[in-house]
Amino acid sequence: MSILDSKIPSGSLKDKWKNHKDHMNLVAPNNRDKIDVIVVGTGLAGGSAAATLAEQGYNVKVFCYQDSPRRAHSIAAQGGINAAKNYQGDGDSIYRLFYDTIKGGDYRSREANVYRLAEVSANIIDQCVSQGVPFGRDYGGQLDNRSFGGVQVKRTFYAKGQTGQQLLLGAYSALSRQIGKGRVKLCNRHEMMDLVLVDGKARGIIARNLVTGEIERHSAHAVVIASGGYGNVYYLSTNAMGSNVSASWKIHKKGAYFANPCFVQIHPTCIPVHGTNQSKLTLMSESLRNSGRIWVPKNIEDAAAVREGKLKAQDIAPENRDYFLERRYPAFGNLVPRDVASRAAKERCDAGFGIENNDTQEGVYLDFHTEIIKKGHEAVIEKNIHNATEQQVYNLGKAWIEEKYGNLFEMYEKITDDNPYETPMKIYPAVHYTMGGVWVDYNLQSTIPGCFVVGEANFSDHGANRLGASALMQGLADGYFVLPYTIANYLAADISTGKIPTDQPSFDQAENDVKEKINFFVNNEGTHSVDYFHKKLGLVMWNKVGMARDAEGLQTAINEIEEIKKDFWTNVRVPGTADGMNPELEKAGRVADFLELGQLMAKDALERNESCGGHFRTEYSTQEGEAKRDDENYKYAACWQYNGTSISEEILHKEELVYENIEVKTRSYK
């Protein structure tokens, strides 16, 4: 097993990445076609990595379980991508982005990685503009910016409310070019089933063709995992239904440490749950908090009347509204970080002020009326309209909102049948992003030599809470500007290795293990569907490993998941066969991994006796209900090593986090 060495370069923070690149080993252009690389995942991180490596001359195989790389979940990102270009002249800088990210992550991320992320962020925008990504522009034609939670500058570049889609199309165009040149072989409708190690190094994968059911062997000199996060362990989340943890979990069980699994982000602006048959939640972009004000009725009687349908939001006078984020956090207001905004909304709803008529009364308002009127008055002045009527002001303000967020408002109305221009949106926090993931060093390599992990699948940049618009930034930074350098440093030793043969014992064993599990699923005479167990797991996770956690609930969760797991392996029923398309078989393997991961998440949360970012232990909070860190005992990344068949046997390793360039202090947005 490899030693836990983060490989952070020496020297000053601002020079680490430059000096590191200057002294890394290289693979000469005429030698790169001797090297094979596998990339698992075609989202922003995987797509950009595969395209860039192929452009450099490596032979790349890229795998996705979707029918097209364009179906990757990165397409769902709405609000924008951060970069420290300071186009607005409002005080932004590389250091400011670095500091905001460290602070937003509640001082639980690695300093060197975060600074590098901020440093290369500006390159991403130039790259994407050259690809034709239609970023929003201001009146003069310059790239426009908006703010996101946890910052006091405008640094977020956007393409209306479909930024992820446009960025993914940019990466996909680069990838398609390499597919056309024959440098990338695309294996769509394929799922990675296991990692193959040869002499301790990652040398290939076992994949299942999801159309034919065929089990395939694929070899390479290095394997890159870019398969996203694990939010679907909660069943209900903003993730695509197919998003899963299996690729990351498979390499974890082969020796890759899994870091900070309990760090899960709850997004504050999602459409509330509307019934027990719902299978997915819908995110409303954080960019809406630029223009919307979050509130609940100030009087509990009004909240009850709203839930009963006796009172509408517009009937509640402004003085009878509690704009609770503005009240509690005046310096940042509605743009506090996601974890802070989510807990504040939960507190109001738990106190009885929720406005949604569901079993749990979970819902608050996101209201745009103030912004509509404000922008309307600005437009009246700009257009030199004298004695404008209230309706003219409203119409002009509405037009401004529509230009900025129109597709988001249309989406909300189609889902809820409410017009958000006329009545406030109803929102509530939901599982969105996972900051935890496979542990990687500064080179993005896991504890398995030759196995690299990029994007949301790794743990490296966001600490205990990710700032909005930083996921797209990290994915493209890793794929375009970090991995192509660091993987070359590793591959330089493989120039004379030759092709990795697949007819060797390591591939035999891995394939047999995969087939054995598949045969179990299709032949087990169970009584319950895969979704039955996934929903049971999700309820335990949300109720006991969700926004608020305590020791008793976490221990109960571990025990309850163990019972669900035993029931799953006894009573799961997978209809159909293994020799063709079988979505239930796909789900069975993924839920099996979620069950094990869920236990580790609860175990990790139980071990961390503090509150930080998205990890909120109710026993460790201030009198005002804010997170209370314990820097003396828990300023580390918790790195778990798989050690057998039981999660209780996982071994904890600690990567101590050292901050030499910032002051670690209590996080405050007041």
From TrEMBL:
Subcellular locations according to the entry: Cell membrane
Superkingdom assignment: Bacteria
Active-site residue numbers: 338
FAD-dependent oxidoreductase 2 FAD-binding domain span: 36-472
Presence of the UniProt keyword Metal-binding in the record: no
EC number: 1.3.5.1
Family as reported in the entry's similarity comment: Belongs to the FAD-dependent oxidoreductase 2 family. FRD/SDH subfamily.
The protein's name: succinate dehydrogenase
Annotated organism of origin: Halpernia frigidisoli
Phylogenetic lineage: Bacteria, Pseudomonadati, Bacteroidota, Flavobacteriia, Flavobacteriales
